[in-house]
Amino acid sequence: MASTTANTDRPRHAYDAIVVGVGAMGSAACYHLARRGLRTLGLERFDIPHAMGSSHGITRIIRLAYYEDPSYVPLLLRAFDLWEVLERESGRHLLGVTGSIDASGPDEVVFAGSLASCQQFDLPHEVLTSAELTARYPGYRLPEGHLALFQPRGGFLLPERCISAHVTGAMAAGAEIRARERVLEWEAGRDRVRVRTERGVYEAERLVLAAGAWMGELLPGLAPLMQPERQALAWFAPLQPALFTPARFPVFNLLVPEGRYYGFPEHEVPGFKIGLYHHRQERIDPEAFNREADLTDEAPLREATARYFPAANGTTMALRTCIFTNTPDEHFILDHLPGTPNIVVASPCSGHGFKFASVIGEILADLVARGETEHGIDLLRLSRFQTELHGAGRGVEAES
What we know:
Layout lengths: L3 H5 L4 E8 L3 H12 L4 E4 L16 E3 L10 H18 L4 E3 L2 E5 L4 H13 L4 E4 H7 L10 E5 L3 E3 L1 H14 L3 E3 L4 E6 L4 E5 L3 E9 L5 H4 L8 E10 L14 E6 L2 E6 L7 E5 L18 H14 L7 E11 L7 E4 L2 E7 L10 H13 L31
Parallel strand pairs: 1-2, 1-12, 2-9, 5-14, 12-19
Antiparallel strand pairs: 3-8, 4-8, 5-7, 6-7, 10-11, 11-12, 13-16, 13-17, 14-15, 15-16, 18-19
Helix pairs in contact: 2-6, 2-9, 3-6, 3-9
């Protein structure tokens, strides 16, 4: 459905591709598109980088042992390679290797799924009992019956630096990046797309939508598949700091009766960092929710730290919030919009996507430039939501 407002405005510029959202996925898309010689425009409604969505928080886990589904592992192998390339090219430290721990009961998904992915792809790994884990890494005190899978290549990315490196590389390759420019609406014709912002109107052959928690505004027909959720994180000052350095404390995913936790060694903030997936089950409007973390947010993180990482249970250093944007099955969405081949959808990523941003940028460039990709993304295509997709490609426009 065309917008009458957009039709009366004169386009200021024409591009091969416009990317809406210059966070994790959008910045990587701009980088890969520009490096292929495509005239690329990136539009971001906030700062670059910013702390309003899903791509901030100082550290983000990257791991090869992937319990969510083994088909992610080939993407991760390529993601690691691309992060290392970006690190060399940018001259910035982006990736810290600590090893990763995935721990749960022996038959529960975190351990069993991680073990299965390692076995399927012949990834180096070790299986440790709780006692063996504590002997090697004394910061851990997991339940007696738990098993931990250690994979040596895991670690953390520095998200704000990663986004900045992708944006800097994109601009060096000729991309135009505009921050603080909110998209008001878009429309797609057979051969062109048109985007109207607060500052002007732009045209391109292809449009990439990578707006994270704001995807439901850009694609109201798909909004039920893109549910923003409020998350909270805590940093606690360790009582024994030497146990929580990157050299002595691997990043972790931990499934216990209280929930599924994830965490990091100290980096920049003087504290052990911990989060809880689906923290308080809070679906939100990204335009209007409580961005301040409070004592209610802190409580489950403090309790888990006291029980499973007692040497980290010191004073609170920081509490922060971010946003997950979840699909019903918690897998990503990477695909062309049904019935609109010149629109590529690139999110949500359900709280575990940042580590993939480097390879997702490459995939998005493939989909824009060639209409297809050699990467295995069948798990991530929109076609898995057949019922919800009925009519989703018609009459889509944004009034964000």
